[in-house]
Amino acid sequence: MEYSDLIRTRQSVRKFDADRPVSPEQLQIILEATSRAPSAGNMQAYEIYVVTDAKQRDRLSCAALAQEYFLQSPVVLVFCTHPARAEMYTERSQRLFPVQDATIACAFAMLAAADIGLSSVWTGAFEEKAVRIIIGAPETQTPVAMLPIGYAAEQPEAHPRRPLEEMVHWVKVG
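RE: above sequence
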């Protein structure tokens, strides 16, 4: 698929076909794409936790306001910060770069999934501490986003987007 078509057609999906697994090969493609995401100073200050176990996905669902799509999707990727990888930078950078790196990596995973015919939904509403405990991440890492991935059970209608004129601000010269 052409990139511009991918961007126009990708939609967040909240209903997955629970009977269709994501193959290890598909998951590998997605994970490899995330490793190509740009990062501040190429520090790659993030970690990805892959959750395929149904009980663990159920626990993630509870930590994410009981979102049922966690139970339907066969895999959930949890993107966490890894601040120690950005220690050489300023305090602001140590705080900000790992979050940026994790979010960019998650966006790459979302686009890679769509490119190979899978669907996903970015999830940012969850209890950080509960998610960190469920995935076994150390306290130094902060979960930033979770990405349930699978085959869509339905195709949602496209949501309207803000007009460019409303969100783009041209800075005047001089």
